[in-house]
Amino acid sequence: MRMPDAAKPPVLRAHEIHVRFGALHVLRGVSFDLARGEGAVLLGANGCGKSTLLRTLNGLATVESGRVDLNGRTITDAPSRVLRAARRQLGYVFQHFNLVPQLSAHQNVLFGAMGQRRFGVLSVANAFARTEDRERAMQCLERVGLADRATHRPAELSGGQQQRVAIARMLMQAPQVVIADEPIASLDPKAGREVLELLWRIVEEEGLSLLCTLHQLDLAQEFGKRIIGMKAGRVVLDAASPGIDRADLDALYQGAVRVDAAPTPQEAAA
């Protein structure tokens, strides 16, 4: 396992994680550290265990053994209140944007503050949202270059613009760690590059930690200062991007064995 910079203690740590779905051994001793302010790309063929790993990091997948630590505190099998607090520190950017179609861009960004407010959804509904929350949501839209689209609904925005709204919503949450799950998979190459440039710039400016799954190897090497490669439920590559040969990345997708699976109803309800 690659050791983090001693000057940057890990904000997120997975230690010897094993996950099974019945007889299916999906994660087989996965370990890695993510330092504060570090941006890493997670690579691997479909079915290698990436999705299960991401669900494990926020407690949605049941761990057979091993643990996940966030800011030095173990969140695996933690009480629900501890897990809820941990999830507030994890911001997500998804492949399919997950915006509410009936709401404006500004209203969608407001939902990023939901975990910080006592009354949840009601606290961030536009009619009830605090003035400071509404102002901060506009600031987040400005950060992604969409202040002039604040009143537009998702259907009125391009795919790249919708993903920018999703990034603004993540910013509104004020997380410490960002999990970006194939954030450009639904975008054309030009829009995808622009979104990655924006995401990396914001993460660096805010001093956030980023774990981003991608399938575009050229972009992974360009943007990720570190590459974590998975194959058949294990981490088989973990190194600084400049020192990795392209053949090592290609090998992640050769002879791949599918071990990943959809979450069980019990996981989804966790």
Largest sheet: 6 strands, mixed
Strand content: 15-25%
Assembly state: single chain
Sketch the topology as an H/E string, one letter per element. Answer: EEEHEEHEHHHHEHEHEEHH
Helix content bin? 25-40%
Structure summary, number of beta strands: 10
Mean pLDDT, rounded to whole units?
Answer: 87
Enumerate the spans where pLDDT stays under 50 for 5 or more consecutive residues: 1-6, 264-270
InterPro entries: AAA+_ATPase (IPR003593), ABC_transporter-like_ATP-bd (IPR003439), ABC_transporter-like_CS (IPR017871), MetN_ABC_transporter-like (IPR050086), P-loop_NTPase (IPR027417)
Pfam family, one: ABC_tran
Protein name: ATP-binding cassette domain-containing protein
Keywords: ATP-binding, Nucleotide-binding, Transport
Topology record:
Elements: E1 10-21, E2 24-35, E3 39-43, H1 50-57, E4 65-70, E5 73-74, H2 80-88, E6 90-93, H3 105-110, H4 121-124, H5 131-143, H6 159-173, E7 177-181, H7 189-206, E8 209-213, H8 217-223, E9 226-231, E10 234-240, H9 246-250, H10 265-268
Parallel strand pairs: 3-8, 3-9, 6-7, 7-8
Antiparallel strand pairs: 1-2, 1-4, 4-5, 9-10
What do you see in this structure?
By secondary structure, the protein is of the alpha/beta class. The protein is built from ten helices and ten strands. The chain has helices at residues 50-57, 80-88, 105-110, 121-124, 131-143, 159-173, 189-206, 217-223, 246-250, 265-268; strands at residues 10-21, 24-35, 39-43, 65-70, 73-74, 90-93, 177-181, 209-213, 226-231, 234-240. A six-stranded mixed sheet has the order 6-7-8-3-9-10, sandwiched between helices. Strands 2-1-4-5 form a four-stranded antiparallel sheet, with helices on one face. Helix 7 (189-206) links the parallel strand 7 (177-181) and strand 8. This is ATP-binding cassette domain-containing protein. Residues 12-257 form the ABC transporter domain. One of its GO terms (molecular function) is ATP binding. Pfam families: ABC_tran (PF00005).
